[in-house]
Amino acid sequence: MAAPDPRPPGPEELLTGSAGPVLRSLLTHAGLGLAVWDTELRCVWANDVLTRYDGIPRERRLGLPPRASLAGDADALEETLREVLGTGACVIGRPYRVPVVQGDRRPRFLAATALRLDGPDGRPLGVALLVLDVRGGRGVEDRLAVVSEAGARIGTTLDVVRTAQELADFTVPLLADYVTVDLTEAVRLGGEPLERLGTADGRVPAFRRAGVASVHDGAPESLWSSGDAVFVPEASPFTQVLHTGRPLLEPRIDTSPGTWLDHDPARAEKIRRYGMHSLLIVPLQARGLLMGVAVLVRADNPAPFDDGDRLLAEEIAARAALSLDNARRYTRERTAALTLQRSLLPRRVDGGDAMEVAAHYVPADAEYSAGGDWFDVFGLSGGRLALVVGDVVGHGIAAAAAMGRLRTAIRTLADLDLPPAELLTRLDRTSVHLVETDEASDVECCSIGATCVYAVYDPAARTCTVALAGHPPPAVTGPDGVLTFPDLPHGTPLGYGLPPHEAAVLDLPPGGLVALYSDGLVEDRRHDIGAGMERVRRALARAGGDSSLTDLCTAVVATLPRAPEDDVTLLLARAR
What we know:
- InterPro entries: Bact_Sigma-Reg, GAF, GAF-like_dom_sf, PAS, PAS-like_dom_sf, PAS_4, PPM-type-like_dom_sf, PPM-type_phosphatase-like_dom.
- Residues 352-575 form the PPM-type phosphatase domain.
- It is a single chain.
- By secondary structure, this protein is an alpha+beta fold.
- The chain is 32% helix and 25% strand.
- It has helices at 20-29, 48-54, 66-69, 74-87, 139-153, 160-171, 185-188, 237-244, 265-274, 307-344, 397-414, 420-440, 529-541, 549-557, and strands at 33-38, 43-46, 91-98, 108-118, 124-133, 178-184, 207-214, 229-230, 248-250, 278-286, 289-298, 355-362, 371-379, 385-395, 450-458, 463-469, 475-477, 483-484, 503-507, 513-517, 568-575.
- Strand 17 (475-477) and strand 18 form a beta hairpin.
- Helix 5 (139-153) runs parallel beside helix 10 (307-344) and helix 10 (307-344) runs parallel beside helix 11.
């Protein structure tokens, strides 16, 4: 009597034996797409229904992993199947979108279920994917689902170019084989878009490529890369869309002599080389303004664009255009705030005979608007030197304007030769009055609150008198030559009218260093402020007495673990 085979059956053996024909018939005619992979994620079986869904013949799947044997978002599906194989937990009803296949007019929207196949002993044999077409004639619901997904995947940041690229990536291969997004130069720079393309001078405005995507690696169909100026013929479908503000559908691209392509031979050559046969151009417009165009092309997909595709592309473009306009407005405000802020900051700092000084300012990362950081250095009576770093709460133009007013107020109060503590106390009252005046006149103002450190160095006494208004303490070289953060009265932020501020007098030896900074240099949402201060202290302590302060500023800022989320200001001063 033969010994039983200890090897568990493979997934392909589940479809053989006496029940094999019945099981195969059920799976073939049940309207379910089905594929089975073994424990190495090699496809061992697939039915014809799945081929109808995604256009991939059965023989092209066998032996391949999911990412090479499925269409659409196959990479993500492979990760799902790998997780199911490892954990045994089913995934039911996962949305699965595949591009247009031959015989269809538009993409399919499917529901995918993944489950692990286990043997009698509980050991995994493989993993199966069941795919069901849930459209059921619900074209409107499908379109709304796609537009909703577009809203989630397009406009994830306030960056114009990235938003344009997200639009291109989303529509390939969902609607097209090749997509470009071209924006007017003004929109890319945060300027005003067009209401429509004017005809007064007959010239087409400057366009630049902001997004490009293709089913082919590297988008070889594109004549221009992202950021390049794009040639737009004066008589072409592109200018027609710019004039009318309405989409243009060309189900079959006419390449015969006498068309607009006669004046654009480079595009004509690309169309012929890659077999482009259907064209759809959609304007990108929001709030009545035209920002650019999205160009959708089909080549590998044999189905021409139709009115259903045009309607879906319009709705996706409308969502994207709103995100583009928001990003454009943000870019404009951030540029204005940065310009205002830089105009109010000193172009250079000079410590005269008392100190060698250097400053470094880094605006926040592109996802954040300009903040209210400022710094200043100016001389006082008796050869003394004032050092200031401040930070207004908030971002944008209001914060930059408030920063400018506080900087001016400090200069005015310093002319009265006030001690640091009294100066900050009066500055606190001044900031309260500024906010009250703005509120009374209904002028947009920054929210109450700013921090500041004001230090006065006396070269005769070799001392540095420091007062804080809710600001991080400076790093100072002590008489023993060791760089520390002295324990100073912290004070309250400006703008609250609370009790008077206090000051501390610190000894500063010849060659001693004072480092004033904003919280953006030491604060991080992922780390405690103490860790940031220690990082700065170590960077400063590594410098020798003859090191350039400018180089030292650069070295300290370079220790930031990532792009700053808040403005970063660093002011270094060394006693001569």
